[in-house]
Design a protein that fits this description.
alpha/beta, Rossmann fold, 5 strands, five-stranded parallel beta sheet
Length: about 120
């Protein structure tokens, strides 16, 4: 799957690269996801976000037009994502299980890209 991950911290980058093992085309950037940086999602099927990225209906609409079909949040909460808008746009929302180590979080993100 072709995906982009926003708001990536240096320690997360290494873990995601190792967990991915070149299975997916993965772009990792430290920028937060917002109206300006959403252009980086063009041609991506999935967007990986943190709990600090707020996904409004407007932003989700733009992501859908870019081809995004799946949002994976690297948290166990989805409160920062407009759930109703995602459902209307038929964008799948995935979240991580609670109480995972950093390594387990990276592996689960990659597993969610595969599902």
């Amino acid at each position: 799957m072709n995906a982009i991950a926003y708001n990536i911290q240096a320690k997360e980058k290494e873990l995601l690269v190792r967990a991915n093992a070149k299975r997916h085309q993965l772009t990792l950037i430290s920028n937060e996801l917002n109206a300006e940086t959403s252009a980086f999602s063009a041609g991506k099927e999935a967007v990986i976000v943190s709990e600090f990225d707020t996904l409004t209906a407007t932003l989700l609409g733009y992501l859908k037009k870019q081809g995004v079909r799946k949002i994976i949040t690297r948290s166990h909460s989805t409160q920062h994502i407009d759930q109703e808008a995602a459902k209307e746009l038929q964008i799948q929302i995935c979240k991580l299980n609670e109480n995972l180590s950093p390594e387990e979080r990276a592996w689960q993100v990659i597993d969610l890209l595969s599902s």
